[in-house]
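Dear support,

I submitted the protein below through the web form. The confirmation email said the job was done, but the results page showed an empty box. After a refresh the structure appeared. I'm attaching both so you can tell me whether what I see now is the final result or a partial one.
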Amino acid sequence: MTDRRTTRWPLFRSLSSIILVAGLSTVAAVPAHAQDDVTDVLLEAEDLMAEGSFTDAVKLLRKTARSNPDDFELQVTLGRAYNGAGAFKNGVTAAKAAITLAIDDPQRALAHNNLGIALFAQGEGDTADFPAAAQAFEKVLEISGGQANSARASLAEILLQLEQDERAVALLKEYLEVDPQAPRARRARSLIENPLRARVALAPEFDVATLDGEFLALEDLAGKVVLLDFWGTWCGPCHDAVPGLRDISRRRSKAPFEMISISNDSDEQKLRAFIKDNRMDWPQVWDRQREIIADYQVGSYPSYLIISHEGIIVYRSSGWSTSKDVEVRNEVNRAIREARKAEKSARN
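What the results page shows now:
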């Protein structure tokens, strides 16, 4: 699935897998064998979503939910799957169903979190749903007694979209006070420094050493189109994507373009061997602390982001197929044309 919601949605896609409040209660008693079947489906759905196969997870969960309409965990997981697949209207419906089924505060908080995600993502290009999304995250904070810290950051993101910067910045500061090492700490700090980042998809800055030992900073690539390839050696579709990426790199060597692959591998030796064996001779970054991955809000692999010559994220997509390969090439070419046009205009 291609997702052009470059400013807001990626953040909430990654949030959809976070359980905000511990201790989910068990839903009303059901026969043991039936509960085992539901548990198996939930586990399989979680595996599919971890792989980025949200549509397959939706199909699996919908089938089971029809025969288990009163199962909270099925509804809340289905809501996450819908959100991951970009079916936000369905995500809203599933979240509301989960809210009615919730039997304790942790479950209510989780269901309202799903609702906030779906409403916020659904409001792309139209802020009409944003107040309701903010209300959902306010409810999460209320139910949890302020303990659901990630909901605080989510609420701040929405308020920044509504240009309520003062309160949003205050919430982000609280978020950092509660946990200076929170998952979105780096983004929170960047938004405090420049709230405009929430409304314009400015690419987060990074400066790293490549596996070849060269220093690489995004600011040094100003004026160029940058394709970021987030991948891992463990990821089968990432392997399939390599020939196409290799071709993109070679054919655009004279263009105002740079491609950077960013791996989340845990084994450096295995990573280096794969890169060598597959002739991946463009800049390779091992994001061992997953800082760039967090800053760019990457939740599935492979993921591709294109940064324009102006430093704005103009394209975001995940997964691989032959059609996706063509799509990424076309988007790169489009961005390069814009960069050349801007360069020509500047000279004149």
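Response: this is the final, complete result; the empty box was a page-load delay. The longest strand covers residues 225-231.
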